[in-house]
Amino acid sequence: MSSQANDLVAPWMSEDVVLLQNSVRRVLVNEFLPHRERWDEEGIVDRAAWLKAGEYGLLCPSLPEEFGGGGGNKAHDAMLAQEVERAGLGGGFGVGIGTHCMVAHYILAYATDEKRAEWLPRMASGELIGAVAMTEPGTGSDLQGICTKAEKVPGGYKVSGQKIFISNGQNADLIVTVCRTGEAGSKGLSLLVVEAGSAGFKKGRNLEKIGLPAQDTSELFFDEVFVPDCNLLGGVEGQGFGQLMTQLVWERMLCTLGAVVSMELAVQHTTEYVRARKVFGKTVMDFQNTQFKLAECATKARVARVFADQQMQQFLDGTLDNTHSAMAKWWTTDTQFQVLDECLQLHGGYGYMTEYPIARLWRDARVLRIWAGTNEIMKVIIARSL
Ligand SMILES: Cc1cc2nc3c(=O)[nH]c(=O)nc-3n(C[C@H](O)[C@H](O)[C@H](O)COP(=O)(O)OP(=O)(O)OC[C@H]3O[C@@H](n4cnc5c(N)ncnc54)[C@H](O)[C@@H]3O)c2cc1C
């Protein structure tokens, strides 16, 4: 493989992204990584860390400067996502800020000028935290089955229903909520921004998960919550499904990039481990089985890297379509799990101990095949285009 230093600079990164990458890496390791264990134990990234992330410009570098953002583009966001994963912070902190930044982009793209000016600077500073609430107990993959209802009343809507598995659910202040404002199916869906302090809105449990211990994932309850007209994204009912589909391409891109970095890390950690570990008088690396397995893993990571970088360039050029983003999401996250599992096996029992990086990578990777549209749904999307 080429040197790690070369691997860190992707073809889609401009000079300013590379410069920023170096300082981001330092900040993550010095200021945030030391808190990881505490966040894991507490099941949440604390508000002070969010405010600090805002101070360092880590909460959506692609937001325009007039809204307190970094004035960059999606290459800056992608670099940040990769560095967060490389620093070992992908699990809780990374998912949190990735989701938050997605919400900022929903608001930037679809909110009124007044709401953008009110919310975005406070999102960039970490004062307001965002979440996206699509999934319900009765429907996840089939978004057209969403039941949470927004009933029209003078001056706004009354929202009633329940959401589940919502990332940033405990911390969230602004929740982009998928609601039914009209007919059955996708045409009757709209996105309403629910403010966490509203009467009738309640956060449920912080759900216990297999992985991502520091990521707060919650149920949310809506009991006739009044949401003013100005919080309807896009200003016209029935646009929710289209808005979701547009923004979901980015969410899948984040899954793809995260999967690739995780594979690269796994190969790196495992190579170091098997070179040092002695069994039957030789290193684990001396077994041809180990060499072949690692050769396969390194190849899969490299193919995935090339695919992901190509996708990222297409995203920046505005040519990445739904079908190809679905291809990348399912393939890289399925391949990631194969690679991580092989790498864990090469660690023997140590691979099962959470103090070893491979254990964390393996545990936190599982969800990537499920969220942002399951990998089966990705194949449904691809098959439709054939
Ligand atoms: C940790 C975590 C964080 C999450 N964060 C968020 C969040 O922030 N916001 C949010 O809205 N949601 C979030 N989700 C929810 C996630 O997006 C859903 O779990 C996912 O979309 C799947 O929906 P479901 O769980 O209802 O599964 P189901 O839709 O019930 O699917 C069950 C199984 O059936 C398969 N299946 C379904 N339809 C088809 C089909 N047509 N063809 C073949 N197979 C099919 C699925 O692939 C899956 O294997 C999160 C989930 C997790 C685990």
Please explain how this structure is put together:
The chain is of the alpha+beta class and 386 residues long. It has 3 domains: 4-128, Butyryl-Coa Dehydrogenase, subunit A, domain 1 (Orthogonal Bundle), CATH 1.10.540; 131-238, Butyryl-CoA Dehydrogenase, subunit A, domain 2; 242-384, Butyryl-CoA Dehydrogenase, subunit A, domain 3 (Up-down Bundle), CATH 1.20.140.10. It is built from 12 helices and 9 strands. The chain has a 4-stranded antiparallel beta sheet with strand order 2-3-7-6, with helices on one face. A 3-stranded mixed beta sheet has the order 1-4-5, covered by helices on one side. The radius of gyration is 21 Å and the shape is globular. The relative contact order is 0.10. The structure holds flavin-adenine dinucleotide. The site of flavin-adenine dinucleotide has 21 residues, from strand 1, strand 3 and helix 12.
Features:
386 residues, alpha+beta, Butyryl-Coa Dehydrogenase, subunit A, domain 1, Butyryl-CoA Dehydrogenase, subunit A, domain 2, Butyryl-CoA Dehydrogenase, subunit A, domain 3, 3 domains, four-stranded antiparallel beta sheet, three-stranded mixed beta sheet, 9 strands, 51% helix, binds flavin-adenine dinucleotide
